[in-house]
């Protein structure tokens, strides 16, 4: 699958809820996971591949999973800042402050309700992907735009868990 590149206007659209979880959605999830791994990345939202639906996939090394129609149910007041990157902006990183702990509810690939309590790195990834579903790109959240910078491909590969 092709990953859209910023500033493609499609990335600014708010995605619609998935109404039915069927074989087409499960196949899309499988293809998104393959695309995310090939990129390589740790998260990929459906709008990034031109699908305006509320669905994303994540793999932080514990095995891939999908979240359909995610909603943030709670977030901590304690903030954390991580340097983020994005498959839509390859080679670009910048510091983003987000709540350090969140609880997300949604559906898995079988339509079963799931609740994810996440902190630190996973909390950042989930918020980043949910932003994509709302038409938000991480550079929108970088307070000091002078801190957005380019990194080499080699640096990205060696430090992908940090980006």
TrEMBL record:
One BP term from GO: translation
UniProt cross-references to Pfam families, sorted A to Z: Pep_deformylase
Required cofactor names: Fe(2+)
Catalytic-site annotation from UniProt: 129
Superkingdom to which the source organism belongs: Bacteria
InterPro entries recorded: Peptide_deformylase, Peptide_deformylase_sf
Reaction(s) the record says it catalyses: N-terminal N-formyl-L-methionyl-[peptide] + H2O = N-terminal L-methionyl-[peptide] + formate
Keyword set includes Protein biosynthesis: yes
Cofactor comment text: Binds 1 Fe(2+) ion.
Residue sites binding Fe cation per the record: 86, 128, 132
Protein's job: Removes the formyl group from the N-terminal Met of newly synthesized proteins. Requires at least a dipeptide for an efficient rate of reaction. N-terminal L-methionine is a prerequisite for activity but the enzyme has broad specificity at other positions.
Family assignment from sequence similarity: Belongs to the polypeptide deformylase family.
HAMAP family: Pep_deformylase
The name this protein goes by in its record: Peptide deformylase
């Amino acid at each position: 699958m092709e990953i859209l590149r910023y500033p493609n206007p499609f990335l600014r659209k708010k995605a619609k809820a998935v109404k039915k979880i069927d074989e087409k959605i499960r196949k899309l999830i499988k293809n998104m996971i393959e695309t995310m791994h090939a990129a390589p990345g740790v998260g990929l939202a459906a709008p990034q591949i031109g699908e305006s639906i509320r669905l994303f996939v994540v793999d932080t090394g514990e095995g891939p999973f999908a979240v359909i129609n995610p909603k943030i149910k709670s977030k901590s007041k304690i903030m954390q800042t991580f340097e983020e990157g994005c498959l839509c902006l390859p080679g670009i990183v910048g510091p983003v402050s987000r709540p350090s702990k969140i609880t997300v509810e949604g559906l898995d690939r079988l339509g079963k309700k799931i609740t994810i309590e996440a902190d630190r790195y996973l909390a950042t990834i989930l918020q980043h992907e949910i932003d994509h579903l709302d038409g938000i790109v991480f550079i929108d959240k970088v307070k000091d735009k002078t801190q957005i910078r380019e990194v080499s491909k080699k640096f990205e590969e060696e430090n992908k868990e940090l980006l």
